[in-house]
Amino acid sequence: MPKPVLIVGAGLSGAVIGRELAEAGHVVHIIDRRSHIAGNCHTARDEASGVMVHVYGPHIFHTNDDEVWRYVNRHMTFMPYVNRVKTTSAGQVYSLPVNLHTINQFFDRTFRPDEARDFIQSQSDPSIGEPVTFEDQALKFVGRELYEAFFEGYTRKQWGCSPADLPASILKRLPVRFSYDDNYFSHLYQGMPEHGYTEMVARILSHDNISIELERNFVRSDAGDFSHVFYSGPLDGYFDYELGRLGYRTLDFEEFQYDGDYQGCAVMNYADADVRYTRVTEHKHFSPWESHERSVCYREYSRACGPDDEPYYPIRLSGEQALLAQYVARARFEQGVTFVGRLGTYRYLDMDVTIREALDTARSCIRAFADGLPLPAFNIEP
Ligand SMILES: Cc1cc2nc3c(=O)[nH]c(=O)nc-3n(C[C@H](O)[C@H](O)[C@H](O)COP(=O)(O)OP(=O)(O)OC[C@H]3O[C@@H](n4cnc5c(N)ncnc54)[C@H](O)[C@@H]3O)c2cc1C
């Protein structure tokens, strides 16, 4: 009997790779150190209210990838959902992303689209040539007033530093729309799994060739019992943090319940620097096809990730890039392990990208297994 394959992590990466391998005839064992499957997409119903809660923060599925959209719909019915985010700034509620409504409300005007475009252009700081920092980029795109109202405080809270210390690349495109379109995403497909992400992942994992073991932490000596390891845990954690820790931001969620409708939308950002939380999530609005009297809300706080915290957002500034390069070099010397997913490759990945990469990784590894070839440490460059 050939040895089974070990997958570390029962998040989307591990589940999709596991399913593809299982369908190709491989026997797959999946372990996760948490007490549940689905990784950071985990959803669970709050017992008292029945509300479906996005336990590790709000997750909205959106993609342009036809195959990925078919893949998730094969395992779960997706309900129509459009992400419409609001933000509170200096005591007023505005619509995000900054759009014609936001501009007209903020400047107390009634601009048509091209008038608004000209006006915003006139706000741009002409002294900025090629923007180097996030702050330069924002001042060039939207001018000081919109920058201070909507970007500065929020970014400072989210990243724990001044936007003047972040690279311009974080704000890649013009964060303003000259129309009343307030759909946060511009992808072709968008939706919410009817019974939550955890049920969707459970269905992906439901295959005779897959076994799952929860509350089991991977140690490198486990690998010997398996033909290959797909590792979706933290890259630095695999090496016991021997070279130091890759920097992450972590999140704290302060849960509270409310009788009725707390804020009338799923996500309300708080742009002001003196409000310590970045946003409030009201989970029942993620399932608009359900009806619940009580409400479950999370106040979300961002801070530097310590050794005992959940790593959420990789920081990937120059210091982290240097350490990442050292870990990547070490990983390439390892035999029999492929690093996958957001933690294994130290990148922020949306769910659709995670699934796309997992499908591609599994398929190329299935071909390599069949041809008796060694599998690479990385199928996708970190
Ligand atoms: C706050 C937040 C909001 C997000 N919102 C969205 C959104 O709206 N839309 C979207 O498309 N994407 C969103 N994402 C991204 C989404 O969460 C990821 O795409 C997805 O979780 C990646 O799946 P993964 O399997 O690679 O990683 P994970 O979900 O992190 O799974 C990795 C698993 O490995 C386990 N593990 C780690 N180390 C070990 C070990 N040593 N031994 C055993 N098990 C281990 C972990 O417990 C975890 O379950 C968001 C992410 C965050 C942080």
Describe this structure in words.
This protein has a domain at 97-170. The protein is built from ten helices and 17 strands. The chain is α/β, with parallel strands linked by helices and 382 residues long. Helices cover 32% and strands 21% of the residues. It starts with a strand and ends in an 11-residue tail after the last helix. β7 and β8 (92-95) form a beta hairpin. α1 packs parallel to α6 (196-205), α1 packs parallel to α10 and α4 (113-123) packs across α5. The protein has helices at residues 12-23, 66-75, 100-107, 113-123, 134-159, 196-205, 235-238, 318-333, 341-344, 351-371; strands at residues 5-8, 28-32, 43-45, 52-54, 61-63, 78-80, 86-89, 92-95, 189-193, 210-214, 228-231, 248-259, 267-270, 279-282, 294-304, 313-314, 337-339. The radius of gyration is 22 Å and the shape is globular. A seven-stranded mixed sheet has the order 8-7-13-14-15-12-16. Strands 10-2-1-11-17 form a five-stranded parallel sheet, covered by helices on one side. A three-stranded antiparallel sheet has the order 5-9-6. The chain binds flavin-adenine dinucleotide (FAD). Flavin-adenine dinucleotide binds at residues 8-14, 31-34, 39-41, 57-61, 217-218, 232-233, 237, 251, 312, 341-343, 349-352, 354.
List the defining traits of the structure above.
single chain, 382 residues, 5-stranded parallel sheet, 10 helices, UDP-GALP_mutase, UDP-GalPyranose_mutase_C
